[in-house]
Structures are given as C-alpha cells and as structure tokens.
Design a protein that fits this description.
8 helices, about 260 residues, Metallo-beta-lactamase, Chain A, about 25% helix, about 30% strand, alpha/beta, globular, binds zinc ion
C-alpha cells in the first residue's frame, strides 16, 4: 500500500527573507509520517515548532549547496531536535567538497553527539545517495556555482563549491527539486516525466522556464525561491510560464504551502 506523499514549503525566499516571505529555502517531502528535508533555510526550526513536528519525524536531510539562504537554519534545527529528545540517527547529506568544513562548523557551534542523538554525515557526489524501501533520492550535479568559480579564484577564496539538484522517488511519485540551477534547461532535462517539479526562479525568467519545459511531461510545476524584486509581479508568473508553452499546472509556492501529491 503506497504511503501518502505530500510537500511542505517551509521557506520560499531567495537570498534573504522579506515581509511576504520571511523564511528562506527549505522544502519537506513527507512520506506518511516520515519527513525528508531538502535544504535548511533560516528559521526552519521555528517552522517545525509552529507545526508541532516531532524531533523523530525527520528521516534525513539533504543539502543542495552551502549558500546561507539554503543552510542558515541547519544548526538551530539540529540543536532544537537534539534538545527535544531525538534519539534516532539522522542522515545528513552534504555536497562532498563541503563535508569537512561543515563537520568543523557543527563542532564550532557545539553540535557534537550528546546522549543518543547522532548525525550521520554522508557525501553527495552525484548518483543515488539515499535508499530505503519505497524511497530513493538521486543527486544531480547543478551548474549553479560554475559561473562564480573564476571570481572566487580571483579573490583567492580558498573554498571548493558544488551544487546539486535532487530527484526523489517516493512510492509511485517522482519529485524533482531543482535547488539552485544556472539555466532552466537543467530543470527540463532532469525533471523529465516527474509528477511534480519544484523549480527555483531566482536565476532566470519565467518565460525561459516555460519554454524549456515544453515536452518534459512534467504534470505539476511549483516555482519557489523568489527574489524580493519579483514579488510585485508574482501573480503574473503562471501566465508567463504557460504563455511560453508549458501545458501543466503552475503554482507559485508561498511559505507554508502544503500540497498533496
Ligand atoms: Zn545558491
């Protein structure tokens, strides 16, 4: 018997919180009572508290990349579930090149194993990174951070960067989560045939996304990760995507949007 699958958009702002979107990027995929979290934007711990999400409901965390609007809420979330008595091991999937740095950061903010709570940090390098019965998560390399590489070299920033999208199989449902990408063609390629595609809209125009998704057979499209400058134009987004040729359903996600699949 397949489990009920639904999504919760804990945070939908890109870059920084706004009055309309006070929470940066964090998306939950629920399979029955189990929650899989994709990115941990600032204030995701507050969102858990407001919804009364039990500390043991969280089955695994997947980070797309380490920009602060995607991971700023990680340490507060871990601290809150730890203090609330989580006992189960928590897998935390992190882009390979950021794993050691993140481990150091968590140690810096005193998040080391206490009592029974333990993190299981796993490197994401592309390919299937998580599997259990009825559920699998595949990481897909994204080009989001490629353009900035030269600039980072110029200023001598000694940090490696990687970004990923994820494709989730939850029972019979296929969900594509773009994370941050460089161009809408990345979404079109990797969302092919998905029941739901969740695509960021901070790095290209709605028309580009609508045109790229023609022929992708994506049934429902959620756009998220909206820049503050886009908010006044928000009501036009579905029409602009569909005018470019996409024929599925388009929904602009808000902080708190819940959708049954
Ligand atoms: Zn980013």
């Amino acid at each position: 018997m397949p489990e009920r699958v639904h999504l919760t958009f804990f945070g939908t702002a890109a870059g920084y919180p706004t009055e309309r979107r006070p929470h940066t990027t964090s998306i939950g995929v629920w399979r029955g009572e189990a929650l899989y979290l994709f990115d941990t934007g600032a204030s995701v711990a507050s969102q858990f508290a407001r919804r009364g999400i039990a500390p043991d409901a969280l089955r695994a965390i997947f980070l797309t990349h380490l920009h602060a609007d995607h991971v700023g809420g990680l340490a507060p979330l871990l601290q809150s579930i730890q203090l609330n008595g989580r006992t189960a091991l928590l897998p935390l999937h992190v882009p390979d090149c950021s794993l050691d740095g993140l481990r150091d950061y968590l140690r810096l903010v005193y998040l080391f194993p206490i009592d029974d709570f333990e993190l299981q940090l796993g490197p994401v390098a592309g390919g299937v990174c998580y599997e259990e019965e009825g559920m699998s998560v595949e990481a897909i390399v994204s080009r989001h951070l490629v353009a900035g590489e030269e600039r980072r070299r110029e200023i001598g920033a000694r940090v490696e960067t990687q970004a990923f999208s994820y494709r989730v199989q939850a029972d019979e449902k296929t969900i594509y989560l773009s994370g941050d990408i460089a161009e809408p063609e990345e979404a079109a390629e990797h969302a092919m045939g998905a029941d739901v595609a969740v695509v960021e809209l901070a790095h290209f125009e709605p028309e580009g996304l609508g045109a790229a998704l023609v022929g992708s057979d994506v049934k429902r499209l959620f756009v998220t990760h909206l820049l503050a400058s886009f908010e006044p134009l928000e009501a036009e987004i579905p029409d602009r995507i569909m005018a470019a040729g996409y024929e599925g359903e388009v929904i602009v996600a808000q902080d708190g949007t819940e959708i049954e699949l």
